Amino acid sequence: MHKHVLLTGLWLLLWLALGPAAAQTRATLSGTVQDATSGETLTGATVRVRELRGVGTGANAYGFYSLTVPVGTYTLEASFVGYAAQTRTLTLTGSQRVDFKLQPGGSQLNEVVVTGRSADANISKAQMGVEQLDMKQVAKVPVLFGERDIIKTLTLLPGIKTAGEGSSGFSVRGGAVDQNLILLDEAPVYNASHLLGFFSTFNADAIKDVTVYKGGMPAQYGGRLSSVVDIRMRDGNNQALHGSGGIGLIASRLALEGPIVKGKGSFLVTGRRTYADVFLKLSRNETTRNSSLYFYDLNAKANYAFDARNRLYFSGYLGRDALGLNNTFGQYYGNKTATLRYNHLFSDRLFSNTSLIFSKYDYEIDIASNDQNFSIISKIQDLNLKQDFEYTASATQTLRFGAQAIYHTITPGHVVADASSSVNATADRTNYSLETAAYLSHEWQAAPRLNFTSGLRLSGFSLLGPGTYSTYDAAGTVLSSTTYPSGQFLKTYLRLEPRLAASYQLSEAATVKASYARNAQNLHLLSNSSTSLPTDMYVPTTFNVQPEAADQVSLGYYRTLGPDKTYTLTVETYYKALRNQIDYRDGTSLRGNFDVEGSLLYGRGRAYGIEFLLRKDLGRLTGWLGYTLSKSQRQFAEINGGAWFNARQDRPHDVSVVAIYQATPKWSFSGTFLASTGNAVTYPVGKYQVAGQVVSYYGARNADRLPAYVRLDVGATYEKPHQEGHRWRSSWTFSVYNLLGRENPYSITFETNPNDASKTQALQTALFRQVPSATYNFSF
């Protein structure tokens, strides 16, 4: 024992003695990488030392980079896809700050760039299951009514599947729609849909980049089992005042950005609104005139650099949907987020970001008919404090560590009614909880071809008072209820979540990777629908509802093809084991069920598959071909006799093709093709009568399927030639959604055949055939 203490002390003294001398032979290069024309930071830009093979780094989410290398004379190069590379030759005798301002264009000026991610990054980094979208790509992809849609574009990638026609919900690698963490400037967005799922919450004019992690997510992310969608808003132009917008068939949008102080701070404000309700006012029908059907959203962001080491950011989002019928029915829902962030450089190696985050999602349903005057109200609200550090230990090692605490306020849904209503009011069952986490992540280039990313996340969840909670018997009947006072910690869960990823570079063009990740989830979405609806209910982990958990292992092969790395091939296979999954007892309805925990069942799940992605990122023709072969199943002792059954999001086959062709400087054409197995559903297999009423008898859970989903969309963009000396630019975008006119099923219902009561007929509802659209876009 004493020997070990003595040796440790000697090593410590030796490090203290030699540390300063060693530090004198090394120095740190740090700075930011920005767009020279707008001042926007370039997340993921590569900075490398030409003379040192394999020595380089990527700029973080705020454009900051740090490299520690031996003193000497070097050529430092910064590059980013779609920009001209920039080099600096310098003699390094001590730490220096070197900022880069890259000019758009370069050798790729006339080429369509699909992604802002360098092909080399997927070869050299250990991270698996990550995809990035560039907003130039999203602008070209044809979508419903011509509204650029981030979520719909993500579902064109392998492993990410839409929840169904007319839904913005999506499933990642067999997970449920609530197992995806969607962040807008670090603020959680709990419902990412407008107009019941036909459009997503995010106005593309406000977004800089989108990163999705399908598995093996870094340790700084947590709280969901399947994926993270990290969406970053643009900072705004800090050089000059600019505006942009668009006028479409169903919605219009406008954006304004400019400097607060030139070169030091900027602002961005965007707005979007539909105007279907304007046309309703023109109707001769009084009921139609008094109805409402619209959504709007507003984005705002501002930032200011006090000096080279301190910068403050503020960003916010406000969105609302309104669907009303002649003052007798109304449904209103929306999101609010606000993020205040402070960046500070403690040293050239230590970067800090402190965030204070607010997020709220709520919905309200109003019914005023005869004596039934009541409202149903539900909300989830978060207040989040988050601290992140990034420390560059050396040219081959980077540490990230931090902590966060989220205070949740959740109202699962309650009825508010006055004394004259025939509907009884229900108790407000608002609950409170505290979610905490601390993490440590280590990126290490162990050898020129070998990279590791390891991490550990400790997550905690505490149920807080005040609140009323029940206990149940095996049949779900309430045995007792207890009301707890404010200020008490009622129940606490702790979970360790290890993460590990490794990559080995077989050659300059090929890499193999492996990863493992464990995730825990303490917020759960309850829904009877096969798609995501705004009226679905969130419930927290409680005495009865346990934290969900998932373990995922992945293997992958990555290769660049062609002399200029024009193509990239990605093949990933995965297996995901899920625990404490939630389902419902047969016959459960969530409507009016305000003590829903008694109807819940708990089981396990498994999902596995293989994903293929072939991309072409450069040239006049760009796009990708994706294919997923997968399986997703669940097992509950009380369902299907305890046998495994298909999850509702199980789709064994999924094919997507995206193509964008720049025919001339004025015209570009695009198309997407999707084909997939239909969702798993449960059909009736018989019927019987109870008190003269016909009741359907349903077969095994999710043993049937909707018809296969097939859709072809096409689009064209015309860029009006820009006149020298004029700031006004404009373009037209034309598209046809579902060109083939295939009636993909939105739902299938069963009813008694009116001509023969002994028979049952199936009725399929389809939402769209061909939907043409045109949008006029402008900027100044």
The total tally of domains equals: 2
- The CATH architecture category of the largest domain equals Beta Barrel
In terms of DSSP E residues, the strand content is: over 45%
What structural class should be given to the helix and strand makeup? mainly beta
Low-confidence parts:
5-23, 107-117
Count of strand segments: 50
The fourth-level CATH homologous superfamily of the largest domain is TonB-dependent receptor, beta-barrel domain
Global mean pLDDT: 87
Largest sheet: 22 strands, antiparallel, barrel
Shape: globular
Determine the fraction of residues in helical runs and give it as a percent range.
under 10%
- Give the number of helices: 6
CATH topology of the largest domain: Maltoporin, Chain A
Q: Radius of gyration, rounded? A: 28 Å
CATH class of the largest domain: Mainly Beta
Distance between the termini: 73 Å
List the topology elements:
Elements (H helix, E strand, L loop, with lengths): L1 H23 L1 E10 L10 E4 L6 E3 L5 E7 L1 E8 L6 E7 L3 E2 L2 E3 L16 H6 L5 E5 H6 L9 H5 L5 E3 L7 E3 L7 E5 L2 E2 L4 E2 L4 E2 L6 E7 L13 E7 L8 E6 L3 E11 L3 E10 L1 H5 L5 H4 L2 E16 L2 E16 L3 E17 L4 E20 L2 E23 L2 E21 L13 E17 L2 E15 L2 E6 L5 E7 L4 E17 L4 E12 L1 E4 L10 E4 L7 E14 L5 E18 L15 E17 L4 E15 L9 E2 L6 E10 L4 E10 L3 E2 L2 E7 L2 E6 L5 E2 L3 E11 L9 E9 L7 E9 L2 E11 L4 E9 L1
Parallel strand pairs: 1-7, 1-8, 12-17
Antiparallel strand pairs: 1-4, 2-3, 2-5, 5-6, 9-16, 10-11, 12-13, 14-15, 16-17, 18-19, 18-50, 19-20, 20-21, 21-22, 22-23, 23-24, 24-25, 25-26, 26-27, 27-28, 28-31, 29-30, 31-32, 32-35, 33-34, 35-36, 36-37, 37-38, 38-39, 38-40, 40-41, 41-46, 42-45, 43-44, 46-47, 47-50, 48-49
Main location: membrane
Family: Belongs to the TonB-dependent receptor family.
Subcellular location: Cell outer membrane
